[in-house]
Specification:
Elements: E1 3-4, E2 13-22, E3 27-34, E4 39-47, H1 48-53, E5 55-59, E6 65-67, H2 70-85, E7 88-98, H3 100-109, E8 117-126, H4 133-142
Parallel strand pairs: 5-8
Antiparallel strand pairs: 1-2, 2-3, 3-4, 4-7, 5-6, 7-8
Length: about 160
């Protein structure tokens, strides 16, 4: 399924396969064709711990691709944990260029590559509680209910 992307991106990219977010997997991906050089890339975004697990390399601060060894993986995991401890929702982004010979199979299977990705980066998004949550928690506590968690996020 090929679908042109609108606006200024139209001349550069075309959406080929989209995989909507699956709630329990906490991620979503797309297959993008680059019109400029006719390459195909898979791009993923989602919960940082899920995306990090799909990566085997990352870009360093200079933009150089490096192998994601156990030591570097632990550094990223600590960053993710730090963001979570600061009440930030941590989102990661990753991509992979798909060799031409693999592209035909992907389009037929409608399945995106989920391994050997390159981590592009992490972002921490402030995600405050909705209005009224504080009072609802207080009301529950007053009624004798012991609140443990008010979000579905991972707690570190």
């Amino acid at each position: 399924m090929r679908k042109e992307i609108g606006s200024s991106m139209e001349a550069r990219q075309r959406l080929m396969i989209g995989k909507p977010s699956i709630h329990r997997k906490k991620r979503s991906g797309v297959l993008i064709g680059m019109n400029i050089d006719d390459t195909v890339h898979v791009q993923w975004k989602g919960a940082a711990e899920m995306i990090l697990a799909m990566c085997s390399s990352y870009y360093d601060a200079s933009g150089i691709v490096k192998d994601l060894n156990d030591c570097e993986r632990m550094k990223f995991e600590k960053i993710i944990q730090g963001m979570a401890a600061s009440s930030l929702r941590c989102i990661a982004f990753a991509h992979k260029q798909i060799p031409e010979e693999d592209y035909e199979n992907l389009e037929e299977q409608k399945k995106l590559k989920e391994d050997s990705l390159t981590l592009l980066g992490l972002v921490g998004i402030k995600d405050p509680c909705r209005p009224g949550v504080k009072k609802a928690v207080e009301d529950c506590q007053y009624a004798g209910v012991n609140i443990k968690m008010i979000t579905g996020d991972i707690v570190y």
